[in-house]
């Protein structure tokens, strides 16, 4: 589903990524972990073609995103969606949240997600179905972002993220601003949605416990370099990179 091949990126004299390579299988959740400044969010921006790498390739569903421009890039982006850390930054404060949820469907009228086919021309009904899938009550449809809790806003962002039934959904620190009980609810929701809709996840976080819970495999970034890549069940293996062990020890303190 996703191949990142020998990707490097610098901003002026600051090298952010150096020769990073990994892949993501269809239906898999790959956790990408590292400290702040390790290059995690830069990778997300490059995959979304919000920025361009200096070298290397980013291939999504057999399409080389690093070569796409204009109309072709817009068409391909339909299949890759993202949920950011702060949902307030991606929700229009002047719109009731149900309208924000269906914005991608209005931008891509040719898209016909399997779970929305029967109501594809009924905007509010589509929002109701997406709310239900994200575990939100329909009574919240007409609320504005500031009228919702942090967990509810993140569920709205998730509802919008799945609206086009993307092949790949990127999560950039989606639970870091939430308290522990709400984090668990969101992670369980994401697990259920991945199975139900058959999406692939790239889950970016600095929290190794969160990544361990949701991911089948884990990739570890340190100062822009991929230093470890392994199945989650092998997290505590003696073969782990010293930096991975540092992250584990820090989480256990």
TrEMBL record:
Belongs to the ABC transporter superfamily. This is Peptide ABC transporter ATP-binding protein. One of its GO terms (molecular function) is ATP binding. InterPro entries: AAA+_ATPase, ABC_transp_ATP-bind, ABC_transporter-like_ATP-bd, ABC_transporter-like_CS, P-loop_NTPase. Pfam families: ABC_tran. SMART domains: AAA (SM00382). Keywords: ATP-binding, Nucleotide-binding, Transport. It comes from Domibacillus epiphyticus. Residues 2-248 form the ABC transporter domain. One of its GO terms (biological process) is transmembrane transport.
């Amino acid at each position: 589903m996703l191949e990142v091949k020998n990707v490097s990126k610098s901003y002026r004299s600051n090298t952010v990524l150096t020769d990073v390579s990994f892949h993501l299988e269809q239906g898999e959740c790959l956790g990408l972990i590292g400290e702040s400044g390790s290059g995690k969010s830069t990778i997300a921006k490059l995959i979304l073609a919000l920025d361009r790498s200096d070298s290397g390739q980013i291939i999504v569903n057999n399409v080389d995103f690093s070569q796409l421009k204009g109309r072709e890039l817009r068409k391909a982006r339909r299949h890759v969606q993202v949920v950011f850390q702060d949902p307030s930054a991606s929700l229009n404060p002047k719109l009731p949240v149900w309208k924000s949820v269906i914005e991608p469907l209005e931008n891509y009228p040719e898209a016909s997600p399997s779970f929305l086919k029967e109501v594809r021309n009924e905007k509010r009904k589509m929002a109701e179905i997406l709310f239900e899938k994200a575990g939100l009550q329909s009574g919240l449809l007409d609320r504005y972002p500031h009228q919702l809790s942090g967990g509810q806003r993140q569920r709205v962002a998730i509802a919008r993220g799945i609206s086009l039934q993307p092949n790949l959904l990127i999560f950039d620190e989606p639970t870091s601003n939430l308290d522990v009980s709400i984090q668990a609810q969101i992670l369980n929701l994401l697990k259920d949605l991945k199975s139900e809709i058959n999406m692939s996840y790239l889950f970016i976080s600095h929290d190794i416990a969160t990544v361990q819970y949701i991911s089948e495999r884990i990739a570890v970034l340190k100062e822009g370099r991929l230093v470890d890549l392994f199945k989650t069940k092998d997290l505590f293996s003696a073969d782990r990179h010293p930096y991975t062990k540092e992250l584990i020890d820090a989480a256990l303190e």
